[in-house]
Structure formats: C-alpha cells, structure tokens
Design a protein that fits this description.
The protein has 373 residues and is an all-alpha fold. It is 72% helix and 0% strand. It contains 18 helices and no strands. It is globular, with a radius of gyration of 22 Å.
C-alpha cells in the first residue's frame, strides 16, 4: 500500500512540475527545448569539459608520479592544525581532491596508514575539508579558459575560507553529539612512509608516458561521469533560469524556459547583492546547481557569458569558483562517504556544515574580488 501512495505522489509531483512548464511554453515546445538544450550542452560543453578533465588528469598523475604531491603536502602541513584543526597529513587529501574530485578522499580515509593520524572527530570532518578543494583544478582551468584567470584564483582563496568554516563547524557538531570522539583515535598502527606514492623503478620516459596515459584514462572516466549531471540537471535548471526567445515567444529552441529562478532571486535581490554581489538574478543558478554537480554548474557559465542581458564579471566568476569548489556536488557524494565510515547518522549535520561553508566561501570571494579585481 505504501508503494502505491509513493507512486501516486510521484506522479502528482511530476505532472505538476512539467504540467506547469508545459502550460507556459506549450508541450511540443517544452519537449523540443529539452532535447535541443541537452544536445547543445553535450556538444558544446560536455566535450569541452572532458578535454579539460583529460588534460588535468594527465597533469595530476604526473604530479603524483614524480613526488610533487608529497612535496606540496609537506609545504602545506603547517596550515592544517591552526586553520582546520587537522593533522599535517590532511594536506595530502587537499592536494588529491584538488587534482581530482572530493570522492578521492574515500581511498585515504579507508587507509589505516593515513587515518591513524586522526582522532575520530577529525576523520569525520575530513569529508567536509576535502570537499572544499574538490574539482579545484578543473574549475580553475575552466574559468581561466574563459578569460577569468585572476578571478578564478580569487575564488580559490574564497573556497579555502569556506573550507575552514565547513570543517570547523562539522568538528563542533560531531563533538557536541559525541564528546568521546575528541580523544579517541580512529585507528591504531600504520607507517607514515606508506602514505607517499612511490613507483616501481622505470625509465623517466616510461614513467612520463604511463602517467600521462593513466591520468588521461582516469580523466575520460571522470568526464563520462559528469555527462548525466550536465545533461539532466543543467537542462532542467536552464529551463528554470532562462525565458522565452528574444521576441517573447516560445519556439522550442535550446535555452528557452520559464525564468522561475530569476523571479525568485529577484525577490531577495538585496540579499544576493549584499552577500555575493550578483548583478543579475539568473546567476543564482550556478550555486544552486553546484549543490548537486559542479560539472553541471560549469555548463551554465558559457551561456551566461554569451547572453548580453546577463552581467557576468570578475566578481561573479570568483564567487562561482569559490562556491563551486566548496560545494562541488557534495549532496550526491557525502552520503556515500559517511556511510563508508559508518557515520551516516551525522549526514544532516554534515550537510548543514557544508552549506554554511559554501555560503561563507561565496561571501569571502565577493569581498576579496571587490578589493583585488
């Protein structure tokens, strides 16, 4: 009986949403816009993103192969304890997730040689810490490729601030729920030397070639995983973001919609202007999409840049970069990470901490851009 009610509610919600959109656009136009927008995103955005991800995947594998990641970890250790309340080896998680995506932290959290340096509350908060750096290289390179390199680096600084907020807040939440975790080690034993990534002895040429090919292959796999998010989430968000064609009619072309998000954003435009400095209400679509998939959110940016009615500047790109990195689709990954650790019951606290961290990242990026850009 419960399943029947669930099916009934699903059908009611489904037809209510698409019925409302279809009544505004016309059902044929709505369906054509869905298909044309998805196709346009696939051809113009997904393959461009995949090319970037393949190249950055090769670069990240090279950095791992030749010990640069270990060097960066040693250089960043001194920041970990005072800012994030984490042991120095946490810097390795930051570097790895920056070079790939936030789920990369799962392999480290499950490694006894890595996790033994953490108390239980610290290991749990590592989920929030790593998310603030997830997809960092891809997001930065993508924004730089659009001509906003300086703003992208300002946004990275904002994401760093947001990461501090999210990590510290999650630690507070965990200790309030489980004060015994403060002094309880996550695991015992392990060897710090095994944290380093060491390769078998081969010639430099073979190491470079293998690293590039393996990293590129990983990039292709990651590029394939973003396709559903970009095509499904971005298409739907764009239909809620953009309005009819230039003459005010619906033609079924790509990137038409009902402009619901700008309508809602306009109602709180003063708050958005104060917090993030957004000049156009349509820009709120980026952080909203980043909650589910930052790759999908990146698919919105070229359209924003090409639309003369939307004011997108260094400030907007800085805020996009900061919030995109700090959230980086965490709603779709944190449940799996916490479930792997055995702390699924802390998911609501985790989500709240990360949402606050993303907002802090956006605010920090806005004010940094105000003084720098």
């Amino acid at each position: 009986m419960a399943r029947r009610f669930e099916a009934l509610w699903f059908l009611l919600v489904f037809f209510a949403i698409f019925g409302a959109i279809g009544s505004r656009m016309g059902v044929p136009n709505m369906l054509n816009t869905l298909m044309h927008t998805a196709y346009s995103l696939l051809m113009e955005t997904v393959f461009y993103l995949m090319a970037i991800i393949v190249l950055t995947g090769a670069l990240s594998k090279l950095l791992l192969e030749f010990g640069v990641v270990r060097l960066l970890e040693l250089a960043l250790r001194w920041l970990m304890k005072p800012l994030f309340g984490l042991p120095g080896v946490a810097a390795l998680g930051a570097v790895l997730t920056f070079l790939s995506d936030n789920p990369a932290i799962m392999s480290l959290q499950s490694d006894r040689n890595f996790s033994r340096y953490f108390k239980k509350y610290q290991l749990i908060s590592l989920t929030n810490f790593s998310t603030a750096f997830g997809m960092g290289l891809v997001v930065t390179v993508f924004m730089s490729g659009l001509g906003f390199a300086r703003a992208a680096f300002v946004g990275m600084a904002g994401a760093f601030v947001g990461g501090v907020a999210a990590t510290r807040l999650m630690q507070r939440f965990v200790l309030r729920a489980h004060p015994e975790f403060h002094d309880e080690p996550s695991v015992s034993g392990g060897d710090e030397q095994k944290i380093s990534f060491k390769s078998e002895e081969r010639s430099v040429f073979l190491r470079v070639l293998s690293a590039c090919l393996d990293g590129g292959k990983t990039g292709v796999e990651l590029g394939l995983t973003i396709i559903p998010g970009v095509l499904i989430i971005s298409t739907f968000v764009m239909m809620l973001t953009f309005g009819p064609s230039a003459d005010g009619t619906y033609t079924g072309s790509a990137y038409e919609g009902v402009a619901l998000l700008p309508f809602l954003a306009e109602k709180c435009s003063v708050v958005l202007q104060l917090l993030f400095g957004f000049e156009s209400p349509e820009l709120i679509a980026f952080p909203v999409t980043s909650l589910g998939a930052v790759g999908a959110a990146l698919g919105l940016v070229p359209r924003f840049v090409a639309d003369p009615s939307i004011r997108i500047d260094d400030n907007a790109i800085a805020v996009f970069t900061a919030m995109g990195m700090c959230w980086s689709g965490f709603l779709s990954t944190h449940a799996a990470v916490l479930d792997t650790l055995g702390y699924r019951h802390l998911l609501s606290k985790d989500i709240l901490a990360q949402v606050v961290g993303g907002i802090v990242a956006g605010v920090a990026a806005h004010w940094l851009a105000y003084f720098i850009c």
